[in-house]
């Protein structure tokens, strides 16, 4: 759907007290906000955090419930423009038009062997965060009931009839709050019952003088880098023969010294790809928590955690963006159908056990990660791997997939988890 047509399709009049209608230079407009009888303005829903999950949820709420009054509160003044989100999907969506690149094939590279898989019916998309955020802000700002506030949220107070969101300057109330504030506030830590790893990476967008990349084939996992006791790989997104993003990624329990990422990137570019002259156009870095610790979804009677905070990051892969989109659509469906946002799909428990086993292996024997991921992708159709990672395959599909990975580490992990009472 064209952007303008989509904005029109979503428009329906409603009244809500204004905070900031554009969300662009939203510098603490909340001080100027009108009140009614000295009461803070009330909304149908407040999005606590306006990143990937907050904006997606707002978008789906507006589509399902035209005229809904929403307040999106974020401490940032502007959209993040410093990285990108990639995801696979087999259904066309409103996000397709925003894709910076879309690919129909992916490569997995191990040692001397390269496997190139055709993805159909899936496609692999890359969105730039700035494009996504600007699109969402423009579309949502066209909705009469949607308002933005720039403020840091200190506390969310749940109540039987309404929720109160306290910011550094004022407070607001709403019937529902969707909370995606950063999970660092949740004090994520390893525990004897759960596994906790970090996916950490530094990427360089580079331009070269010679053709280096095949623009049709990203490398999802390229293991041509020393493993040194942890799972390490390069993630290569080619934009053109002479331009692409190369990301050095590690799954481990702590970050590397700052310079190590650059050293590994240089070694890969110069030794493996044979690129001697290149310009770094942009750098991106990130840390994504990978844990099987259960995330609380419902936080009281009127607050739902979403995004990373709501456990939408797939523990064993770090992918979250498409899961966030699915979740946002499900929240809107629930609110429309039942008048509450809590009727959400729950994925089968067996996926928690698979995630926990893999995290246990990666945490204790990180050097095995390469063989596991290579066999997973090379001995299965990639569509089966996607269904597994999306937690939507049948038990028989899961069995077929598990029969292709090195058995001993998984048997050991499973037995040790049974012994420790971690498998129910
Ligand atoms: C660098 C990076 C790259 C990633 N790439 C991918 C990818 O390619 N594919 C994929 O599937 N997943 C990816 N992920 C994982 C995941 O999709 C993203 O982290 C995604 O942004 C999570 O969405 P979120 O809404 O939970 O968090 P965010 O997008 O970070 O949004 C949280 C928002 O809350 C605001 N906030 C926080 N605290 C407060 C407060 N106290 N008051 C007000 N506002 C507050 C923040 O300013 C922020 O805007 C990536 C993660 C990172 C960090």
Give start-end ranges of low-pLDDT stretches. Answer: 1-19, 21-35
The number of distinct helices, counting runs of at least 4 residues, comes to: 10
| CATH architecture label of the largest domain | 3-Layer(bba) Sandwich
Instruction: Note the overall shape.
Output: globular
CATH C-level name of the largest domain: Alpha Beta
What separation lies between the terminal Cα atoms?
Answer: 45 Å
The H/E string reads HEHEEEEEEHEEEEEEEEHEEHHHHHH
* Helix content range: 25-40%
Bound molecules: flavin-adenine dinucleotide
**Would you count the extended β strands for me?**
17
Mean pLDDT: 89
How many separate domains make up the residues?
Answer: 3
What is the fold named in CATH at topology level of the largest domain?
Answer: FAD/NAD(P)-binding domain
Range of strand content: 25-35%
Radius of gyration: 22 Å
Question: Biggest sheet, in brief?
Answer: 7 strands, mixed
């Amino acid at each position: 759907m064209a952007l303008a047509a989509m904005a029109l399709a979503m428009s329906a009049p409603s009244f809500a007290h204004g905070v900031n209608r554009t969300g662009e230079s939203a510098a603490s407009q909340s001080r100027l906000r009108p009140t009614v009888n000295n009461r803070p303005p009330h909304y149908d829903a407040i999005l606590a955090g306006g990143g990937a999950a907050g904006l997606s949820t707002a978008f789906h709420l507006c589509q399902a419930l035209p005229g809904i009054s929403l307040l999106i509160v974020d401490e940032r003044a502007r959209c993040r423009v410093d990285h990108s989100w990639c995801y696979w999907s087999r259904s066309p969506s409103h996000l397709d038009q925003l894709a910076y690149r879309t690919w129909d094939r992916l490569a997995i590279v191990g040692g001397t062997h390269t496997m190139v898989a055709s993805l159909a019916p899936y496609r692999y998309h890359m969105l730039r965060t700035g494009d996504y955020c600007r699109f969402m802000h423009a579309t949502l700002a066209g909705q009469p009931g949607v308002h933005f506030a720039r403020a840091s949220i200190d506390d969310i107070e749940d109540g039987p009839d309404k929720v109160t969101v306290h910011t550094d300057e004022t407070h607001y109330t709403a019937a529902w709050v969707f909370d995606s504030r950063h999970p660092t506030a949740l004090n994520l830590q390893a525990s004897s019952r759960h596994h906790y790893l970090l996916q950490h990476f530094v990427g360089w967008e580079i331009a070269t003088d010679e053709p280096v990349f095949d623009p049709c084939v990203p490398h999802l996992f390229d293991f041509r880098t020393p493993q040194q006791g942890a799972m390490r790989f390069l993630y290569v997104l080619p934009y053109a023969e002479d331009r692409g993003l190369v990301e050095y990624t590690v799954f481990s329990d702590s970050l590397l010294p700052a310079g190590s990422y650059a050293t590994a990137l240089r070694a890969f570019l110069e030794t493996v790809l044979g690129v001697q002259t290149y310009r770094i156009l942009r750098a991106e870095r990130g840390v994504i928590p990978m844990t099987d610790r259960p995330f609380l979804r419902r936080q009281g009677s009127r607050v739902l955690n979403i995004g990373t905070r709501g456990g939408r990051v797939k523990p064993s892969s770090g992918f979250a963006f498409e899961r966030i989109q699915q979740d946002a659509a499900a929240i809107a469906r629930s609110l429309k159908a039942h008048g509450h946002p809590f009727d959400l799909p729950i994925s089968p428990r067996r996926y928690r056990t698979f995630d926990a086993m893999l995290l246990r292996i990666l945490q204790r024997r990180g050097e095995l990660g390469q063989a596991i991921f290579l066999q997973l992708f090379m001995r299965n159709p990639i569509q089966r791997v996607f269904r597994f990672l999306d937690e939507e395959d049948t038990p028989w599909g899961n069995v077929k997939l598990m029969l292709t990975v090195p058995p001993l580490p998984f048997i050991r992990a499973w037995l040790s988890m049974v012994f420790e009472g971690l498998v129910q």
